[in-house]
Amino acid sequence: MDPFSQLIFVISVTSFLIFQWLFHKGSPWVSKRISPGFLSLSDKQKVEWNSRTVSTFHAILVGIFCLCILLFDDAVNEDPVWGDPTLVKINVAITTGYLISDLLLIFYYWKAIGDKFFVIHHVAALYAYYYVLVSALLSNSRTCRQDGKETTKSEQLRPPTLGLPIQHYQIHTYHTDMRKARGQGMLPYFANFRLLAEFSTPCVNQRWFFEVLGYPKTSRPNMANGIAMAAVFFMVRIAVMPVYYTRMYGVYGTEAFYLVPWGGRVAWICSSICLDIMNIMWMHKIARGCYKVLRSARQSNAAKPQENGKTD
């Protein structure tokens, strides 16, 4: 395993340990000091509170990192399939550690925070991120032969041919030195783009915090957060779909696309569709809830008597 791959492994393990510590120690210590209502929660509510606190921290950290890559990493934006994956891999490694940590907590505290949709979401994401972080590293260590001759080290670092003529690799020779140092970079733009969705997580979690602390749904903080939640969720999970799938369609059928192993293509396309189906379902629920709260607030204001004793 090359030094960069070792670094990615260390980041993933460290991420897992940090998020476990935040759940068990960090969140309870901070929460009881900034929110007195935390102490009055039931044990199940405290479990979900800590889970959502960790989720919010992860979303802010990874979301900012993701946005910086999207705005300033020219290598990834110019070559979405085989661009330099260095920063993307670091960000995905952090998310991988979090997803594994959260998945274990979901199973362990199933009665408190168990949700089959979150399990599907986490598994689908981990399956896709496997091809960003791990599969290429394993494929690089295999010994392969072409035309009865053992390949050179640089040839071993090439992705599978999938029956394509060897000439198709010539335009990708510049990737060889990069893969020697960092392992094969696969679909970095798309892996990073999916992480934009994390920006909606803090508002979703804050809605639950307000609810468990007893804030009325029609209170100003709750309504402001609800509107922000619906707007941000729509922007980073729904409105970006045309951009994402247009870029995917633009890559489909190209030489770069066929250089991605079959399993990587399945992980990329199927997990994207699966996650976006769930995003549409969640957006529908959020929109309905937001509409009901706004309508309830409007009716409540209409029923209040004016200073002259009349109603609006």
UniProtKB/TrEMBL annotation:
A Pfam family recorded for this sequence: TRAM_LAG1_CLN8
Cellular component per GO, a single term: membrane
Principal place of residence: membrane
Locations listed in the record: Membrane
Ranges of residues in domain TLC: 44-295
Membrane topology: Multi-pass membrane protein
InterPro entries: TLC-dom (IPR006634), TLCD (IPR050846)
Example GO biological process: lipid homeostasis
Keywords of this entry: Membrane, Transmembrane, Transmembrane helix
Annotated TM spans: 6-23, 54-72, 92-110, 226-245, 265-282
Name of the protein in its database record: Transmembrane protein 56-B
